[in-house]
Specification:
- A hairpin with a 4-residue loop joins β1 (52-57) and β2.
- The chain is built from five helices and three strands, in the order ααααββαβ.
- The protein has helices spanning 4-8, 14-25, 27-44, 46-51, 70-88, and strands at 52-57, 62-67, 98-103.
- It has a single domain (12-103), classed as GMP Synthetase, Chain A, domain 3.
- A three-stranded mixed beta sheet has the order 1-2-3.
- With 105 residues, it is of the alpha+beta class.
Length: 105
């Protein structure tokens, strides 16, 4: 089924084509979830960023974060709701459903 843009025979900006593909394939939300890893320092602030390292986001929206010390892990577990709010405030796509803190190796 031809789409309207193809009938016009005008070139489509590559960014728009990629966005449509990501949306149609369901990868747009996963990409938005993964963007948390790069934005982590801005989302959580310098103190938390210095004591943590985001590792990955699972398909169910769980963010895995390495933590330097058990003391930080305890502190972050108590702050988890606030951190989730900050992380999910960045947009309406790719929500993070939970955080798994794990001691860094």
């Amino acid at each position: 089924m031809p789409n309207e843009k193809k009938k016009d025979k005008r070139p489509e900006p590559i960014g728009e084509a990629v966005r449509r593909y990501l949306d149609a394939s369901g990868l747009g939300d996963r990409l938005a979830q993964a963007s948390v890893i790069e934005a982590w320092p801005e989302l959580v602030g310098p103190a938390v960023a210095a004591a943590t390292r985001p590792l990955a986001v699972a398909a169910d929206g769980t963010l895995f974060v390495a933590v330097r010390t058990p003391a930080w892990m305890t502190e972050l577990a108590m702050m988890e709701r606030e951190i989730l709010t900050a992380v999910n405030r960045r947009g309406d796509r790719g929500k993070i459903s939970g955080i798994r803190w794990q001691l860094a190796r």
